[in-house]
Structure to design on (192 residues):
């Protein structure tokens, strides 16, 4: 076999392999459309609310008294002395999505680890809801009642204290990191 026929054989073999590989990439199988950013957030919000109200039935009364809810299905927090957290969610008013929001925070101090959790802000007054809706970004402060599920998966009876304009519930924690704090969390309106 001469050098030129060897080259021709190798090149034709590579050409055939390349054609086969390209053909396999486009095999005309139907692809399911991926949900858009908004659809994906809404699906996660629905699943999170189903989980919340099924796992913690006492929160149904809180939902029924609230004029709106900001639902953050997954907030991821990580830190090694410097820390940060981020998640996306939706503001629901009257059971429908009003707007989309991102939650972010930064922290510094003795911390190590990573975790994910969900949280819902229940707006108990029209004034609190309207102040939140009017802003493009807002940091909620001391006028929030924070509640974290205890080891038994319960929220205390004082969780539904109606003397505060916003009640924040944190639940579904997974991972290893001491403490969940939402103080200083910046909420920013997004357009997914």
């Amino acid at each position: 076999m001469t050098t030129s026929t060897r080259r021709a054989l190798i090149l034709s073999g590579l050409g055939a392999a390349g054609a086969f590989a390209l053909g396999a990439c486009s095999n005309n199988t139907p692809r399911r459309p991926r949900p858009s950013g908004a659809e994906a957030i809404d699906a996660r919000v629905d699943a999170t609310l189903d989980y919340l109200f099924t796992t913690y039935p006492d929160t149904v009364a809180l939902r029924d008294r609230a004029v709106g809810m900001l639902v953050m299905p997954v907030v991821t927090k990580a830190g090694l002395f410097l820390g940060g957290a981020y998640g996306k969610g939706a503001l629901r008013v009257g059971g429908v999505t009003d707007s989309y929001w991102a939650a972010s925070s930064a922290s510094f101090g003795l911390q190590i680890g990573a975790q994910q959790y969900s949280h819902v802000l229940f707006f108990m007054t029209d004034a609190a809801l309207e102040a939140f809706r009017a802003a493009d970004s807002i940091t909620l402060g001391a006028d929030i009642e924070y509640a974290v599920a205890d080891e038994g998966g319960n929220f205390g009876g004082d969780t539904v204290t109606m003397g505060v304009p916003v009640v924040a519930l944190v639940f579904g924690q997974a991972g290893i990191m001491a403490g969940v704090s939402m103080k200083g969390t910046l909420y920013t309106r997004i357009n997914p």
About this structure: The two ends are 62 Å apart (CA to CA). The chain has two domains: 1-31, 37-190.
